[in-house]
Each structure stands twice: as C-alpha cells, then as structure tokens.
Amino acid sequence: MPESPEVQELANFLDARTTAAAVRTVDVLLPKALKTQSPPIGVLLGGRISGVTRIAKMLDFAVETTDAGILHVIVHFGHDGWVLWHDSAPGDLKRAGDATLMARVRLSAGSSGPGFDLTDAGQWKALTIHVVKAPDDVPAVAKLGPDPTAPQFTEAEFAGILAGRRKQIKALLQDQTALAGIGNAYSDEILHAARLSPVVHAASLSAGEVERLFTAMRAVLLDATAARRGIPPAELRAAKHAALRVHRRTGETCPVCGGTIHEYVFSGAAAQYCPTCQTNGELLES
C-alpha cells in the first residue's frame, strides 16, 4: 500500500511536470473508479493544473477550469494503486503491464503530449477518483486525523490521540482517522524503532514510551521521505521495500540485535517484529 513518504515524492514528481499544463483528455477505463458525478469529469478538459499535493496517502490535483473554477481531483490508491508516467502518452488504451489501467490523463504541454496512467494491480481494484470543489468533500479526507509529519504536530497532540484508547498500537497507527498517512509497512518500522510490541494497547503506554514512540514515528517517516527524494515513480516502491528493516523480513536477522524477525498474523493482516527488541523475547500467538 502506498504510504506518505512515497506518495509525497510522487506528488513532488507530478507537481514539477504537470503544473501549468492543460488537461487535454481524461479517459476513465473502469467506471467504478470515479466516485463523483457532479461536477462532471468532462469539465476538467481545457483546465490547467495549478499544483499537485499530498493529503495523507492520497494525491490532490488542483485544476483551474473554465466553467467551474478551481476543482480538486482526489486520487486514493487503495492497496495496489499507482501512477505510470509517460513523457509521450501512448495513443491506445491498454492494460498497464501487470496492473489494470483505471484512467489515463493526457496533457497539452508542448508538442510531446505527456500524460500519466492511474493503475491498480490488486484483485479488487480499489483505486478511487473524486472530482470535488474542496478536498473535504471527499469523505475519506474529511475524516482524516492529523498528519504526523506536519511541522506543527506535537508530542502533546500525539499523547492526546493515544490517551484512553483500548486499541492495539499497530492498529491505531494505521487508523487514518487517528493519524493520517501511515500503513502496514511503516507501522512495523516505527514500532521496531520505538522498541514496542505491536499488540500493546495505546492506553497502557507510559509517558516515556509515548515519547519514544513519537520520536520514532517522526524519524522513520521524515527520514523515509528524505530518502525517496528524486526517485522516479517507477522505482519508488522498490526503494521503499529495500529500505525496510523488519517489514516483510520474516526469518531474517534483526539489524539491531541480531535476533530473528518473526511474524504475527491477526484479522487477515500481518505484522513483522523482533521479539528481542520489542516483546522481551515473547513470541506473539496468531
């Protein structure tokens, strides 16, 4: 699943290449991906992209249209969605490699006709597109908690989110209504860096553990964001996976203590953790 560090660099890449470009064509190949009907997607044609930004794990394309003013195209990638950039967009509409082509946007920026595809490699095709007047018109955006990478996000605010929550800390880190932008991979990395079990309840954390978790969360996310800078979209996911220390590393050696990384399966999901570093040697039962 795309998470905030990779989506941030994807936003940087697209912002640099699409700002001030006019939208020439928009083809939605899988109708269920488009979740809004008003304003109609056709109103984007001829509009100019004024910027691309990240909202949690989503992209926000701001488009200055002729008839509807500034509109926002919010793309939520789901579990397996992504962007495929074309310096010269193909003339036909085909499957995008191993992924399904969900939508294609062509731009009028010079004679080359660049553009990008929105793709989804998952079984359920969960990528969604909303065309709205304001980002908060998208329910998933309106419900978001604070972004933990924001400069103004404080440890006190974080402690307030955790206080009284009888929820396992890994699940809470991934809860977008509590904290925006963290998914399965970085929650594992954060908890390993903080030396905390994925199953401990948020409400049970001591003040020292909250401080440790806050510091680890900020460091993991901001360091990953900096490390992805300048990496093209086609290489971002591989760069992310190569840098992970525990996530998807079951059976490998912990880079901190030299122990063995284990997996804990719950509710159809999985967490990777180091028993020595995180659970006082205890193996979690699935």
Strand order of the largest sheet: 1-6-7-5
Listing every helix as H and every strand as E from the N terminus to the C terminus, the arrangement reads HEEEEEEEEHHHHHHEEH
Q: How many DSSP-defined strands? A: 10
Strand content: 15-25%
Q: Spans of 5+ residues with little confidence (pLDDT < 50)?
A: none
What is the helix content?
A: 25-40%
What global shape is seen?
Answer: elongated
Rg calc = 20 Å
In round numbers, the mean pLDDT is: 95
> How large is the count of helical segments?
8
CATH topology name of the largest domain, in short, is: N-terminal domain of MutM-like DNA repair proteins
Per CATH, the architecture of the largest domain is Alpha-Beta Barrel
Task: Give the end-to-end Cα distance, rounded to a whole number of Å.
Answer: 22 Å
Q: Decide which structural class fits the backbone.
A: alpha+beta
CATH superfamily of the largest domain: MutM-like, N-terminal
Tell me about the largest β-sheet: 4 strands, antiparallel
CATH class of the largest domain: Alpha Beta
Domain tally: 2
